[in-house]
């Protein structure tokens, strides 16, 4: 098997992990009805998953840094498969929560290990594109996994989705064990050394952008299925197509974000994307499918395009902040993204209980607005740093 095919296999594994995380948003109403719980309680399944993923992944990866990479990937995938089997067979809400905790532990280790392996087995000069392919698998779960999961859940029950993921996971374990070469572990980077970067104001501001941007997004996205059914007035038959359109737009948005960043820079792309993100969420609150589903679909596509255009831009923004610690910065950003998803789902659940389901879009827009303000502060800080550096260089030149 060529290295390209091995990387595609890693992307498929990333797709399975992404589907297991995002699918709950797509079948939230079905989980709530089946388990006899509120939409808010069902939404906390995302909070729990994201929180465990964010907090445990850096710790577990630090503890297993020396473990051979193929072995770590297969064992992590095994934990992930067991969690999906538990989700499929165990009845009730509490056992499902426990299964989600185990699933998040396995998922975080699978994704980080797969990204590392993809860089190691990539042909010379293809490391970045190999990593991008694995990340694309995770993104594809939003495009294909969530709407397809909704269809499977409607036909065979929502638990069948996790049963199917478990079967595909077992198959992937055997293929990975046979095809991926043995790769030595890394020299561990102490956690305290990783978190020391947070003391720098520009790093703290940069990660705050991720938290409020994705947190705002998550407040609205977590409860998207019930929102479309009960607020936007979409019929059940339109939910899967709506989620599919949203997913396709997210992929295009990522591409546009990367292109725009290369062409017009981080500042304009990030600010423009977040402004459009805010406007889309606000307009969504006034859009109803009573006459036609088209306006709802259009707003969903604009929202997804805008939201995901910020993804690659923000990743590049963080790497620029600390070029010498790009790996650590991206690792911290992964944890911050999951914390944001957890916070967004939690805040959205409280909003539904205390205010209304429709309030999630407004609160989401407010979160993104905070991210936009933080980004403006960061850009001004960096501009001032550059000016100070220029003055220092001029001063040194004068003295010479």
From TrEMBL:
Cellular compartments annotated: Cell membrane
Main location: membrane
Topology in membrane: Multi-pass membrane protein
Gene3D superfamilies linked to this entry: MFS general substrate transporter like domains
Organism field: Paenibacillus solani
Family annotation (CDD domains): MFS_NepI_like
Name of one Pfam family that matches: MFS_1
Name of the protein described by the UniProt record: MFS transporter
Domain of life: Bacteria
Regions that span the bilayer: 7-28, 34-60, 72-90, 96-117, 129-149, 155-176, 203-223, 238-257, 264-283, 289-308, 339-356, 362-381
Entry-linked PROSITE patterns: MFS
One Gene Ontology CC term in the entry: plasma membrane
GO molecular function: transmembrane transporter activity
Domain Major facilitator superfamily (MFS) profile: 6-383
Keywords for this protein: Cell membrane, Membrane, Transmembrane, Transmembrane helix, Transport
């Amino acid at each position: 098997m060529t290295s390209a095919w091995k990387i595609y296999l890693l992307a498929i594994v990333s797709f399975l992990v992404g589907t297991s995380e995002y699918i709950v948003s797509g079948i939230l109403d079905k989980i709530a009805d089946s388990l006899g719980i509120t939409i808010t309680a069902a939404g906390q399944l995302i909070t729990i998953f994201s929180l465990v993923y964010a907090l445990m992944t850096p710790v577990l990866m630090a503890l297993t840094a020396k473990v051979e990479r193929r072995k770590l990937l297969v064992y992590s995938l095994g934990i992930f498969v067991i969690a999906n089997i538990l989700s499929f067979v165990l009845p009730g809400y509490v056992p499902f929560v426990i299964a989600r905790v185990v699933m998040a532990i396995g998922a975080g280790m699978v994704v980080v290990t797969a990204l590392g392996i993809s860089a190691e087995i990539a042909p010379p000069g293809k490391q970045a594109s190999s990593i991008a392919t694995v990340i694309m698998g995770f993104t594809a779960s939003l495009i294909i996994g969530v709407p397809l999961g909704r269809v499977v859940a409607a036909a065979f029950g929502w638990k069948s989705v996790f049963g199917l993921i478990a079967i595909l996971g077992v198959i992937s374990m055997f293929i990975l064990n046979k095809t991926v070469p043995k790769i030595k572990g890394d020299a561990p980077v102490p956690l305290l050394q990783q978190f020391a970067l947070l003391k720098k104001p520009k790093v703290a501001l940069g990660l705050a952008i991720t938290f409020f941007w994705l947190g705002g997004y998550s407040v609205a996205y977590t409860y998207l299925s019930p929102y479309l059914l009960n607020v936007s007035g979409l019929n059940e038959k339109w939910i899967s197509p709506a989620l599919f359109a949203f997913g396709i737009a997210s992929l295009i948005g990522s591409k546009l974000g990367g292109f725009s960043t290369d062409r017009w820079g981080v500042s304009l792309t990030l600010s423009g994307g977040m402004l459009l993100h805010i406007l889309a969420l606000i307009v969504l609150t006034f859009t109803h499918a009573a006459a036609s589903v088209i306006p709802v679909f259009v707003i969903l596509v604009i929202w997804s395009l805008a939201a995901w255009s910020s993804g690659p831009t923000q990743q590049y923004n963080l790497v620029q902040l600390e070029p010498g610690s790009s790996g650590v910065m991206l690792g911290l950003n992964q944890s911050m993204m999951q914390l944001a998803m957890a916070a967004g789902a939690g805040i959205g659940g409280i909003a539904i209980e205390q205010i209304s389901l429709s309030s999630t879009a407004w609160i989401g827009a407010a979160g993104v607005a905070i991210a936009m303000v933080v980004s403006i502060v960061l850009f001004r800080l960096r501009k001032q740093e550059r000016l100070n550096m220029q003055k220092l260089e001029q001063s040194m030149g004068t003295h010479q």
